[in-house]
Amino acid sequence: MTASSPRVLVAMDLSPDRLLYLDSLIKTDGATLVYVKDDCQALHEAIIHPCQVALIDEILPGIGGIALCRQLINLPAAPVTTILLLNNASGQSPAVNPGALHCLAGVTDIDTIYLHLRKHFPCSRPLASSTLFSDTHDKAPLLNDSLDVMPYAIILSNSRHQVIESNAAVSRLTGINKGKLKQLSLSDVFALLDFNIVTSVILQKLSTEGDWQGEVHARHGNGEMRVYWLHALQLSGNDPKNPINNVFFLSDITVLIQREHRMRALAETDALTGLANRNLFISCLDTAVGTADLHNAPAVLFIDLDGFKAVNDQLGHGTGDKLLCDVAKVLQACVRVNDIVARIGGDEFVLLLIGATHATLVETAQRINEHLSFDFLDKKNQPIGVTCSIGVAVYPRDGDNAKSLLKLADQAMYTAKENGKNSFCFASPDADQVLIGN
Predict the structure, then answer these.
(1) For residue 6, which of 25, 37, 29, 36 has the smallest C-alpha distance?
(2) Which of 114, 275, 280, 424 could lock 268 by a disulfide, CB 3.0 to 4.6 Å apart?
(3) Domain at 269-426, CATH from 3.20.20.100, 3.40.190.10, 3.30.70.270, 3.40.50.150
């Protein structure tokens, strides 16, 4: 841009993408955009480097947009044509003198702002009466520049599913330049990305409904698998030879998915042991009850440690925390891979077994009683033994919902404690009560 090119001062808060777009529009007309965010910068630029026109936000930090406009209008050396951007739709402001400056009310669209600015500085290109650009040739470079700065990967294909246009993000994703991409089909591009969805599934949906969107897994050019949100749209074209075009927007949502997983883990995981917490266990139990039948009825084992308080009191909470982690490992080793182990508070643990027979429940409880046994010495070398008591409740015999099953398993656990600890007990009086003594 030459030193003699018109200068356009813009004093407002613009996001990087909107600023880049406005700058590209103004550059197309041979002008220079001067962008500032406060009154001091704006006044300095207008005095040192005269501007042909200034766009000032009414709520500009400092003395405010209205006061700044008055100062720019009254500059002795080179008064500046000002456009005040009002933040109300009526266009009225009690502090504005309508004869002194131009006003835009409630306008946020960059194209509209640009058109108003363009009226007040000399341009190297004539302005069409009804459109922003005079023809397709003028529009193409700006459109390509705008697409290339977008964070989304954008692919345009024709009715034969050949790539006819793409932006820089696609090249970064695939490692292939735009020229070579235009020689490929959509299936070729999707194969390069290693999509976890068949291309024909998307295209079939587009042909019948004109729209497809969903989560896909794709391989980045650096070899890393990432998660994307793909939105595909069918466009009706004006070319009789290619009446239908498809456009694909691919947005990287890996960070969002990872954040969601971390938040879910925090919400559903016991921080100390890494087991499921009470919320997740109840949710799983609710689901198990809701889908239960004769072959996959859920059962709850409620486990409470015997002697844990003495370990905490005599040896400290550090030893107690390590013991809880060791208990978690023992419980996980005593159950099947698909069984759920959770810590629901203090020294209380629960298990969810689905489709377990009475014999399996007895064997599991016996195994836990056998392996969950720890011996400690207190500060006076006196022994502290830690075992566990277990209560068992089975759907639907003992309860028809998660709350009742958990409550009855808890009550059965206390019965086991009363019968000598280091034992287990079924909630139903008519069930076999197998007790294992110390």
Answers:
(1) 29
(2) 280
(3) 3.30.70.270
